[in-house]
Amino acid sequence: MKYILISILATSFFIFSSCEQKGKSKKAKPKEKKTVVVPGFSADSAYAFVKQQVDFGPRVPGTPAHEACAGWLVKKLSAYSDTVIGQAFRTRTYDEEVRNGKNIIASFAPEKKKRVLLMSHWDARPFADHDPDPEKRRTPIDAANDGASGVGILLEMARHFQQQQPEVGVDIVLFDLEDWGPPSDLEIYDDKYWGLGSQYWSKNPHVYGYQAAYGILLDMVGAKNPTFPKEYFSRKYARYVVDLVWYSALNLGYGSVFVNQNTGAINDDHIFVNRYANIPSIDIIHIDPESSNHSFFEHWHTTSDNMEQINKQSLEIVGKVLMNVVYNEN
Ligand SMILES: [Zn+2]
After folding, report:
1. How far away, in angstroms, is 279 Cα from ligand 1 center?
2. What SS3 class is residue 245?
């Protein structure tokens, strides 16, 4: 993912679509408020799920590590959910190569009409193009934070969904080939080369005509002391989802993490889910104006995005907020 110019504005169609969803979800809510017991979220378990992915080696599409991790993810999610689909696709990267990708989709209570969509990307970037050492800028990265952290949280949530079913249906979608965008020194600035798995899924969802009340994307959510400001496209397409999630965080005492600040546009998977699948979706992403690395977390797209950067408390904060959001839906 990367910053993109704010000049690419959302059209009124998407704003209309977002409002329509808002109306629908309001109508579906019953009048009396039920007390919901939200299961605890285990940071240890989430951490172990992050580490297990990283232990495969960089999950770069086309490598044995990628293949092995896909098998592991499918097996894990099959143990927790009702159905798992490995959605294979072919796509073309910036270098004109055709590559094979696999989105992995786990559905909980697929018969339920009202659904919440949870997303993250599971592939690792093939190039550490922002590494301080120029020699390493074509080296694949562990992508512990930029990829595995979000997936780890979603796996831990899946474990709970199996033990205590939420009122609403849930779909977890793990996108492939998010991070095969052109290395920065090539100066190719076309946004279409990022989020290839989400572009494919958004145009070809696993269920024909698939809809969800809203979607939440996790990206770089496991580093120490993260700050998650309100990203531009999230506000543009899904303002009420931003409010819902940030309000939940505030209630849990995490107002200094889910900060009440706006930030610019990030080219990430949620854009395509908004644009092509018309599901109002937000991005929870670590943005730090103090960072010397393009406002992302310090080790973004470097060889040091490894397990040393993963912080259990951060995983717990994000996990707890999402658990509260999902279990309070009805
Ligand atoms: Zn990335």
Report:
1. 22
2. helix
Distance from Cα 74 to the centre of ligand 1, integer Å: 22
Residues facing 116 on adjacent strands: 170, 214
CA–chain centroid gap for 133, Å, is: 28
Task: Determine the distance separating the centroid of ligand 1 and the alpha carbon of 218, expressed in angstroms.
Answer: 12
For 133-191, the pLDDT digits (tens) are: 999 999 999 999 999 999 999 999 999 999 999 999 999 999 999 999 999 999 998 88
With pLDDT > 70 as the criterion, what percentage of the chain qualifies?
90
Domain count along the chain: 1
DSSP labels, 25-83: HHHHS-SSPPP--PPP--HHHHHHHHHHHHHT----TTSHHHHHHHHHHHHHHHHHSSE
Query: What span, in angstroms and rounded, lies between the C-alpha atoms of 214 and 205?
Result: 15
Q: How many angstroms separate the alpha carbon of residue 239 from the centre of ligand 1?
A: 24
User: Ligand 1 (ion): which residues have CB within 5 A?
Assistant: 146, 179
Which residues, in sequence order, are CB contacts of 208 under 8 Å at separation 6+?
none
CATH code, domain carrying 247: 3.40.630.10
String of b and e for 280-292 (b: at least 16 CB within 10 Å)?
Answer: bbbbbbbbbeeee
Place of tokens 């531009």: 232
Q: Which residue(s) pair with 173 in the sheet? A: 105, 119
Could you report the per-residue pLDDT of 93-138, keeping only the tens digit for each? 999 999 999 999 999 999 999 999 999 999 999 999 999 999 999 9
Res 283 pLDDT > 90: yes
Three-state secondary-structure class, residue 149: helix
CA 112 centroid distance within chain = 22
Domain span at residue 139? 2-28+35-327
Length reported for the chain: 330
CA 104 / ligand 1 centre spacing (Å): 18
